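Ticket #4471: structure export looks truncated?
Reporter: QA, pipeline team
Priority: medium

Steps to reproduce: submit the single chain below to the structure queue and open the exported record.
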Amino acid sequence: MTKTIEAAAALIKKNSRYLLCQRNRDDCYGNLWEFPGGTIEKKETPSETIKREISEELDVSINPVKILKEFFDKNEHLKIKVYLIQCLFNKGILKKKDCQNFGFFEVKDIEKLNLAPVDKKIFNYLKRGGK
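Actual output as written to the record:
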């Protein structure tokens, strides 16, 4: 049976660069890069999820602005729906709390990263200018 989950991903831009995180080695899709975020828990909104997840992963506070688009992916075990949420930094200094690494990348440099499957779709959306 295929499991279905909903998740939220943060689109955080600093100048012309976007924040991405490298997943922990032992995670699903370990070592791959992603737009930070995570699974929506029961009774959580996508905005509540993204605030919690960014705090847990990177130890900073953000303000969700709006949902930009929904992305879908599936494999033999999992169906996923991801809400891409435009976010702004509120306060804090980025720290690796629940990821291997993080960085700000220009679109041309994101193409060189080994992205998780649904994050490739987000990247293509950015490459097309958010269309």
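Status: closed, not a bug. The export was complete when the record was re-opened. Leaving a note from the reviewer for reference: Residues 46-58 form the longest helix (13 residues).
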